[in-house]
Structure formats: structure tokens, C-alpha cells
Design a protein that fits this description.
With 473 residues, the protein is α/β, with parallel strands linked by helices. The chain contains 13 helices and 23 strands. It is 25% helix and 25% strand. Helix 8 links the parallel strand 10 and strand 11.
């Protein structure tokens, strides 16, 4: 056994690029991309590339191709081709053999964090890590061969959580659209018999709010939701409509979903509200992850599995990033020497081993010495019949240090609740210190391009409001 060593035959670098080549062979005559009246097959179009209009200054790409985009001015680092994608492909060499990476640890993808809590960071993923992320995501979500996948999740958001490559691996049909719009979503689901889609909880919220006059779906649609903790009320409404919701957890730094709320058959016997509460938890590590834990930030020790003790969520596994681009300090802060990636998310571990997020570390509100979870307050606010969107951040307070400030957008109702009514509603459902002391109504809450609420921006607004003259008790 000692003399056996890896050979070129069994040590080829892992890379998801091979998924495209395989799809062109196995699913060559099957539709790969559908947009309006345009349809491509896997043999004719293995992959559609975006024209990219902007790179942050510190990347300095050697070549940036801008295709038929007259609104973007070329810079010293750009080259413009007045050409279409189709004509570029037609000019290519059909006999060209693509070159595999020499090392699977080579950087493959640069993704940027969404910037909900701070400035975006450039996250570098390898061929190897991306390969594991994709297969892990397909396995955990039980994606079958040749699904019909509706792109309600932006492809640039962690490569669509890996499914831009994953659909090639299983020969799926990609149904594309320009922007998220609830009526269009329902129309495309029915027209193309959509089987799968992804999206942040805000997407589910939009779909369920629009559906007041709609009948339940003719066929179940599997939805993978992640990005922020989904309120149980939204999950319940989505399930009633016929969406089969799977809840997961991941970050740009993980390349996709690495924790999911693995469902147990015995839970189907529970009442709908209890099932929604269980599904609102983030869950357990996926097969491809090595370890997931919640630890005390001071001691580094695992917190008690009591569903109450809060710590920071840490991860270990092949799906993790190589690091932040040109940011060794930021990289060393989260990828520690003891082999853990510190996520910055605060959570608890339940007795059954399922993890649940309580807040981002930057979103935790410290009021009168108590650590307050904005997520828990938001979950209560979402149960109010008039609330469409909710986000809770800290507002400075001279006495308490910080107090909860709720930003709300409301549904189109004839009777709008007052700030006092919202506060009283929360007071009946929350401990005194968790009740918002300030309520701000807005037509729409600011969001990132991926649909997540920009708490970073809301925190700045709350901070600019200053401390109230008299802190309300």
C-alpha cells in the first residue's frame, strides 16, 4: 500500500467547468436557457455570459469585454466589442479543446458581498471549492435531473448560490427574467411548469402578499430560501399557496448553502404553525461541510445546546473561500489559525443539534445591558396584518445606550396603524426591553440588488436621528 501514489489518471483537478462540457453531450438537444421567445439548447449554448459594466478599482482586470453596451464608457482597462453574443460564438472554433486548470486550488470566481452590514468585500473561490459547493447544493436540495428552474435569484449573488453551474450538472432548463415581478413570476410558473426556484425571504413575502386573489399553485414549486432569517408567518403563507419551502444558510464566503433545515417526516404530523417555526431554523450542516458550531466569542468554546445561549456561528469545510481579494487583514480576522471561519452571525444551538440565527453581530442591539435580537422583533412585526416589510436597528439612547428602532413598509390598506399602535402590538408579544421605542414608516425599505434589506443604511438613518429628548419607558 505504501508504494501506491496518485497518478495523472486519478488526480485531475476538480472544476465545475466540466459540467458544461458534459451537459452539451448528455442534454445536447434539451433546452438550456429560455427568455421570452428565445430558447437555447445545451449543445448550441453551453453558457450565457453577462457583459460586465463595472469592476471596483482594486481589481484591475487585464481584459474586460463589454458587449453592445453604449451607456458604458471604455476605460484604460476595458476593450469594447461591437458585437452580439451569438455572432461571437459563431466566429469561434468548434474544435477548440478547452483548457482545464492546472491546480484545483487556483482562483476561479470573484464574488462581492452584498454590503448589507458594511462595505462589500471581494471573495475569491477556487475551482475545488466551487465544485464541492455545487454538488453539495444539488444533493441537499434533492434536485432531480432536468428540473425547470426559474431565476428569481440574481446570478451574480454567489453565482446564484451555485445553481448557475448546478443546472448544467443536471441538465436543467433555466427560465430567465429581467427583474423580479410577482405577476410575471406566477405567469412563468404556469407557462413553463416551473419546478424549482430560489430567493431571499423578501421574495417569498412579495409572492405571498400578491397572491390574495390567486388560487394555490397547480403543481408544487420547490423554493430554496436563504439570505436572512425568514419569519415563520411568511413560510406558513408560502406553504399554503403550494410552495415547498426549504430553508438554508450560507454566505458569499461559503459560495452557496452550507447549512439547511433538514426536514424530518415525523414533523409533518405537527400543526402548520409549529412546522413553520421548525422550518424557520437554519438547521444542520450539509453533507459537504466538515463541521458547524456556535461558540462563545471570548472563550472559543461551544455554547450550551439549549436554544438560548448565544454565540458566533463558525464553519469548517471545502466550500469556504480562499480569502478576500487584496485584504489580508480582513481574511485573517475571519479565517482563523485554529481552522474556523467566523461568520459574524450570532445564533443558538438547539438540543436536537439544529442551529438558529439570532442576528448579525453588527445588528445586535444592546439595550440596558441586554443583548437584543433584531430578528426576533422583526418576526413579531411580520405577524401584524398591516406590515409588508420590517427591519429593526439600534437607535442611540442616552439612558439605555441603544433602543430598538423599527422601519416598516405597510400593505395597501385603507386603515394605516399609528406608531403607538405598532408599539402596543409588540408590547403584548415581546419582553419590555425588546419592544421598539421608535417606529418609522417608509413606502419601501432600501434593498440590495439581491433583495436583502440594507440595514447598514437604516442604521445610519437611526443614528442621524440622535437620542430622543425623553426616553420612553
Amino acid at each position: 500500500m505504501d508504494q501506491l501514489k496518485p497518478s495523472p489518471a486519478n488526480s485531475s483537478p476538480l472544476t465545475p467547468l466540466g459540467f458544461l462540457e458534459r451537459a452539451a453531450t448528455v442534454y445536447g438537444d434539451c433546452p438550456s436557457v429560455v427568455y421570452n421567445t428565445t430558447t437555447y439548447t445545451w449543445s448550441s449554448r453551453a453558457l450565457i455570459l453577462e457583459a460586465i459594466s463595472f469592476f471596483p478599482p482594486h481589481i484591475k482586470p487585464p481584459l474586460l469585454i463589454l458587449i453592445t453596451d453604449d451607456q458604458v464608457s471604455p476605460s484604460s482597462d476595458t476593450v469594447r466589442f461591437h458585437d452580439t453574443y451569438e455572432s461571437m460564438v459563431e466566429k469561434g472554433d468548434p474544435k477548440f479543446e478547452w483548457v482545464r486548470p492546472e491546480n484545483e486550488w487556483d482562483p476561479m470566481i470573484l464574488n462581492y458581498t452584498s454590503g448589507t452590514t458594511s462595505a462589500p468585500k471581494g471573495v475569491v473561490h477556487t475551482h475545488r471549492g466551487t465544485f464541492f459547493t455545487i454538488l453539495d447544493g444539488l444533493l441537499d436540495w434533492s434536485v432531480p435531473k432536468q428540473p425547470v428552474y426559474l431565476w428569481t435569484l440574481a446570478m451574480f449573488h454567489v453565482n446564484g448560490w451555485g445553481f448557475s453551474w448546478g443546472m448544467a450538472a443536471v441538465g436543467g432548463t433555466n427560465i430567465c427574467l429581467r427583474k423580479f415581478d410577482a405577476p410575471i413570476i406566477y405567469r412563468l410558473i404556469e407557462k413553463h411548469n416551473v419546478t424549482h426556484m430560489c430567493g431571499a425571504p423578501v421574495v417569498l413575502n412579495m409572492l405571498t402578499n400578491y397572491s390574495n386573489n390567486l388560487k394555490p399553485l397547480k403543481s408544487p414549486v420547490h423554493v430554496l430560501t436563504a439570505g436572512s432569517p425568514p419569519p415563520a408567518t411568511i413560510l406558513l403563507k408560502a406553504e399554503i399557496l403550494g410552495f415547498v419551502v426549504t430553508h438554508g444558510y450560507g454566505l458569499t464566503e461559503t459560495g452557496g448553502i452550507v447549512v439547511s433545515c433538514a426536514w424530518k417526516k415525523q414533523w409533518n404530523k405537527f400543526p402548520a404553525t409549529e412546522k413553520a417555526r421548525l422550518k424557520a431554523r437554519q438547521g444542520v450542516r450539509t453533507i459537504g461541510m466538515t463541521k458547524v458550531d456556535v461558540v462563545n466569542k471570548e472563550t472559543g468554546m461551544s455554547v450550551k445546546r439549549d436554544g438560548l445561549s448565544i454565540g458566533e456561528i463558525v464553519l469548517r469545510g471545502p466550500c469556504l473561500m480562499l480569502g478576500y481579494l487584496k485584504d489580508p487583514v480582513g481574511t485573517s480576522k475571519c479565517l482563523t489559525k485554529n481552522g474556523w471561519f467566523f461568520t459574524g452571525d450570532m445564533g443558538v444551538m438547539h438540543p436536537d443539534g439544529y442551529m438558529e440565527i439570532k442576528d448579525r453581530s453588527k445588528d445586535v442591539i444592546i439595550s440596558g445591558g441586554e443583548n437584543l435580537s433584531s430578528v426576533e422583533v422583526e418576526s413579531v412585526l411580520y405577524t401584524h396584518p398591516a406590515v409588508n416589510e420590517a427591519a429593526v436597528v439600534a437607535r442611540p439612547d442616552e439612558y439605555w445606550g441603544e433602543t430598538p428602532c423599527a422601519f416598516l413598509s405597510l400593505k395597501e390598506l385603507t386603515q394605516k396603524p399609528s406608531e403607538k399602535e405598532i408599539i402596543e402590538f409588540c408590547r403584548a408579544k415581546l419582553p419590555h426591553y425588546m419592544v421598539p421605542k421608535t417606529v418609522v414608516f417608509k413606502d419601501e425599505l432600501p434593498k440590495t440588488s439581491t433583495g436583502k434589506i440594507r440595514k447598514f443604511e437604516l442604521r445610519q438613518i437611526a443614528k442621524a436621528m440622535g437620542a430622543p429628548t425623553i426616553s420612553r419607558i
